[in-house]
Amino acid sequence: MAGVIRKYPGLELLAKAAMLAAFVGLGAGISSAQPLAARTDQQQRDALPSSATKHAESMASATPGAPPAISDVKPVRRAASTGPYYVDFRARTAATYGHAFIWYGKTNEKQVDVAGLAPAGDEIPYILGHVIFVPSETGATYGDLDEQYLTASYRVYLSEADAKKVFAYIKHLQETSPLWNAATANCTAFIGRIATFMGLKAPFHLLKPEEYVNQLRELNGGRKTAQLEPDRS
What we know:
Layout: H1 2-7, H2 9-47, H3 50-61, E1 85-92, E2 99-106, E3 113-116, E4 118-119, H4 123-128, E5 134-137, E6 150-158, H5 160-175, E7 179-180, H6 187-197, H7 209-219
Antiparallel strand pairs: 1-2, 1-6, 2-3, 4-5, 5-7
């Protein structure tokens, strides 16, 4: 080949020109191939399903040392404690318009204490009590422990510390309520004083017992717990 080029000097010039053209073309092909490959790679990534992208992101967030995304952090929900003690405001049927009273005690014990305000004796004290004050009784009366006579109930839970104060107040109220009167010192007024001591809103006392207990629940939004003020004793 070299001998042919020496014999024909013009061929040497033509060969150099061809080599130069080939070299320039090869460089252009390489430079154009790079953006083409980049476009192809981008198209392939765009063609990936969104689920694959999400999976890749979740795998990246699971890398040790990587902080979790803010949207993935959920607040811890604390279960509301109802407390081990309760006061149950109750109403039951009676010969006339009914009777209001309370049950109180500890949730895991079957035994309950009963408190209420009623005229002591039979029909005569009850009738006279609509005109004058008559002697009262403040413990359980006939029907207070029988569920079949129940017409309304609203139970509120207390912590142990608050229960001690409330239960002491109930006993104090029993000891200092010697008289009953249908218009003023009656059964609904009695349980209303307990509700107020517990920080609950109490309805007007001249209501039928069933209506009174239901309104007591409504006034307090059906709340299940009560917490005394720090200075309440």
